[in-house]
Write a structure and sequence with these properties.
The structure is a single chain. By secondary structure, this protein is an all-alpha fold. The longest helix has 23 residues. The radius of gyration is 19 Å and the shape is globular. The termini are far apart.
Length: about 220
Amino acid sequence: VEKQKMKFRNNLVDSVRGLAIIIMFAANLWPYAVPMANCPIWLRIVFSTAAPLFIFLSGVSIAFAQEAGKLTGALLKRIFQVLLMGVIIDALMWNIVPFYNFDVLYLISFSLLLIVGLSRIPAAFQILITAGLLVANLFLLSQYNFEMATIELSGNITDFSIATALHQFLIDGWFPVLPWSGVAFSGYLLAKYRYKLKPFSLGFSITGLALILLSCLLYTSDA
């Protein structure tokens, strides 16, 4: 059993996850360590990579777990543990109504539920769903005026709105389903079909690097 577990450990994935933890720690420490200084643009870009890395790696982890032979019940148990942690953090640490301000732990939980539910459908449909989740956001950006909404537990809970909560879930929250669940699904697909995609790894690397550089240029031009 231990050999089987070790077989599905991936040093690269573990290293990237460790890097994401360091970046997240530094990003949260910065406002307290340097309270009077503006964060440089290049550092804001670096700090912004932590959550996307965690989201992407959540999909990768599900693919590896399935390869290791974990049953659906065990995967669902882990997913609900992540969901419960999100609820506890919102309620006890931030004093806000859970699920209303769709945060990264909720996103990861929902994304992994989606992946597990759709893991048995043909790969072509999985790719179409992933592309749809990512592309839909481009349309929303041009059609919708995004607004965040938060309700504190100590405030007026009667202000809770199902319609607003759904907007938070889909497009308004800190990490809404569109497009972020597509990022988790992308990690799942790349990990699941990594051996078939290996001949194209150089092309993927060049394309990914080009997209990262383009995103940084667009971000700095708007800043």
